[in-house]
Amino acid sequence: MLAAQAPPVPADAATLIAALARPAPASTAYTEVRFARPLRAPLVLHGQLDYGGGDRLGKRIDTPYRETTTIGAGVARVEREGHAPREISLERVPVLAALLGGLSALLGGDTAALADRYAIALGAEGDAWTLTLRPRAAELARHLRAIVVDGHGHEPGCLSLEEAEGDASVLLLGELARAPLAHAPTRAQLAAVCRHVGT
Amino acid sequence: MSPLRRYALIALCWTALGAAALSVRDGLVIRSDLRSFMPPARAADQRLVTEEIGNGPGAQLLLLAIGNAAPPQLARLSAGLAAALRTDPRFTRVLNGAEDVTSLDPALLPYRYLLSPTLDTARFDAAFLAAELEQREEDLATPGIGVLDDLLARDPTLEVLKLGQRWRPAHVPQVREGVWFSPQGEALLLAQTRAPGFDPAAQAGAIEALRRDFDGLPDAGAAQLTVSGPGYFAAAAAKTTRDEAERLSAIGVLGFALLLVLAYRSAGILAVVALPLAAGALGGLAAIGLTFGGVHGITLAFGFTLLGVAQEYPIRLFSHRRAGATVAASTADVWPLLRLAIVSACIAYLALAASGVPGLQQLALFTITGLLIAGAVTRWLLPEVVPLTFDDVAASPWLERLRARLAHMPRPRPLPWLVLAGALTAVSFAPTPAWQNDLAALAPIPQAQLQREGELRAALGAPDVRYLLVLEAASADGVLRLSEAIAPLTGQWMSRGIVDDIELPSRYLPSLATQRARQERLPDRATLTTALDAALADRDFQPGLFAPFVDDVETARSLPLLTPDAFMHSPFGARLQAMLVQRDGRWFGLAAVHGVRDAQELERGVRAAHGGDVRLLDLKTSSEALVADCRERILVALGAALALLAAAVAVAFRDARRAWHVIAPMSLATLAVVAVLRACGVSLSLFHLVALTLAAGLGLHYALFFERPVSDAAEARRTLHATLVCVISAVLVFGLLATSALPVLRAIGVTVALGVAFHFCLSTQMAQRRDR
Fold this sequence. Notes:
The complex is a heterodimer of chains A (199) and B (772).
Chain A: H1 2-5, H2 13-20, E1 26-35, E2 43-53, E3 56-63, E4 67-72, E5 75-80, E6 86-89, H3 94-108, H4 111-117, E7 118-125, E8 128-135, H5 138-141, E9 144-152, E10 155-163, E11 168-173, H6 187-195
Antiparallel strand pairs in A: 1-2, 1-11, 2-3, 3-4, 4-5, 5-6, 7-8, 8-9, 9-10, 10-11
Chain B: H1 3-27, E1 29-31, H2 44-55, E2 61-67, H3 71-86, E3 91-95, H4 112-115, H5 118-121, H6 126-139, H7 149-154, H8 159-167, E4 174-176, E5 179-181, E6 187-193, H9 200-215, E7 224-228, H10 230-264, H11 270-273, H12 275-292, E8 294-296, H13 297-307, H14 312-319, H15 327-353, H16 358-385, H17 397-407, H18 415-428, H19 447-460, E9 467-473, H20 476-495, E10 499-503, H21 512-521, H22 525-536, H23 547-557, H24 564-568, H25 574-579, E11 580-583, E12 586-596, H26 599-610, E13 614-618, H27 619-653, H28 656-679, H29 686-707, H30 713-738, H31 743-766
Helix pairs in contact in B: 1-12, 2-27, 6-22, 9-10, 10-30, 12-16, 13-16, 13-29, 14-30, 15-16, 15-27, 15-29, 18-28, 27-28, 28-29, 28-31, 29-30, 29-31, 30-31
């Protein structure tokens, strides 16, 4: 029933990216599962993403602790409750910069900008699709293997950052942010959640 | 001599001079560093001042701004320029904001627990580690925001990061696109030159290289590079002065040539009139090259000014040619007096050689050699090459009318005394300070540029060029202990807003005692492991992850302490090396001062702080004191020169009364010039003194020749003709300089032009013989 109501999977990446465009400012709740090699279990964070248009992005963590990262004018400003704010040049945090670049191009529907920086591949399975962005610049590829967006119809569901060294972040967006997760979810469990978008 | 031989000889002379000029130029290093013109420092502190005036941390910095393009392009240009300058040996340090504060020399990594202040207030116990590890876990949530994984395992308390932040200037510009940007949207850079700030030639070279590098960047396009800072100002002032002097001199030389053609009705003499001066200048340069190896730029400027006297020699020779006599005969007639003028001037300049100031010794050597050679060329070469045909100037009727009028002018006996009294009164009651010691005031910087420099300096957080905090102790470690002792005080000054930042040496290296105390607070392996395990209980870190941390702490416990010597010779110690200097067995720490808001309060604070061991060095006041000291030596030297001159003239004349007729008008005219300048509110500088000396040298000639007993009125007319040509040419050339807007050129121009006029008037009054 639901599948029938959803719009058909676009035939090519450009059409899909154009359909994913959202006018700024746009906000969405997220749940992030962060796999970092020094940790034996992933961190699970809840909060909100705010896209302010252009190169402005806000990422708020509400639980398990409070932190706000604001990105703009080439600088990331991290304010953690109870600590002095830190300002870091985006060049020092290439993965964050790539996330911002990818998100703003996606939300702006700017296929050309995306294709400039990434090799884009689109895969579809039923009404679900997977957009894989692999960085073209060797410099970025040293830090980031791919940005993977899973979605359904015109709705992105998951945004995953695959870092070169093996760390990864999976952001469950919108409706999926409320999906129940295991205490320490595995990549496989998350993949299943992302793939079942819209079903 | 046949005309053909004469022309050949002239051509030969100029060819020889040209060749000599080339070889002298190749063998001579021209230095423009102001400091070699200062007296040799006597005390260690004074030597420190002379060295720091040009080498202070603020003075060597060039402040750069790149604007007029989009930020990403500006950032690329900033990176490109920084990369180019880092390979240029003219620059010792280039900062553009892209430096990684988390980097630390691997050799220093184990020392981080001794260098960082963490252990002064904390212990590596379970509670401290638990709080730190919670933070590190949260850091891992944002990719790239924390430290790299391998550093996390070694340094979970982020000592490397803390050191990086501690060693970074307190006020840095905003970082955009990975590099520094000003609030006005320009990319900012700091470039530290190897050359001292007040070496205009070296600074000009560095700036030229910098601009070349910038223009060579692939996408420089319409982007604009602004250079500012003391070195830039020094170079710009030198260039403006030189350009203006050259422009005015070129006009002056043209006028002089025209005057000569009119005065002697011969264009041919133009080919030979400059021979004595050119030969003298080259000879002087060669003498300096052989004796000193290099010459100071100011010595050259002063030397050429003083050598201007020699331009009178050929004029005397031309004006005294007589109809019916050979040039050899007429030259032989005036030669004894000319020789007396030359020799007595040379004897007088010996006084400069005795002054002990290297620049003045060079000046004396240059001038004496130059005058002797110019005299010799006038006496023995010029008669061979002067044009064969000439007009006897004594034949002109207007000259006779003028001579008669001058000769019959009333000469009231009290006049010189009245002039003396008036001059002394003017000097005593002059409204302004007698001396201008601020050399910078002589080459002022346009207000707009000064303001721009202030903006850039504030935006870049670059240290003040004027103030330096000096810490003195018996050893390098003593300086560091002193530095630690006053650190809380400087912190207060900063929080009270007196000063933005004081970069103490202990910020880079703690004293041995502090390092030892921190080392003793490091827990042993067992204690640390227990504390770490307790701290990790609530965390999800991989088991065994922090083994490298435990190992590093264990290593640090038994490290030999980091001595200043060892630290200074590590690649990271260059900063400290510039801050710790040894002079005469004492150690001095030089702390750069950033953004002085209240100099008086700062000075009071420093004085109250630690007695004589901590001093605020005001480089402006100190350099002015040095200039005053230098000037005093020059004054004494010139006083001695005058005494020597009087003695030489008296000995030559064997007649004190005749000597008085020569020396008195010269001295009185010099005093009168000083009086007029002072009455007009001019504060005198070194340049005025040199100009007064030149004018006195010219005045000596006027007095000597007017005083000369002559056989007939025709010879008196020739003397008057020569003197008039000399006076008019000097007034013309220096009067042009006097029209300049640049204070240094105006000082020389006004003084000489005024001096020549006074010397002429007083010589006619006091030295000229009564018509017989």
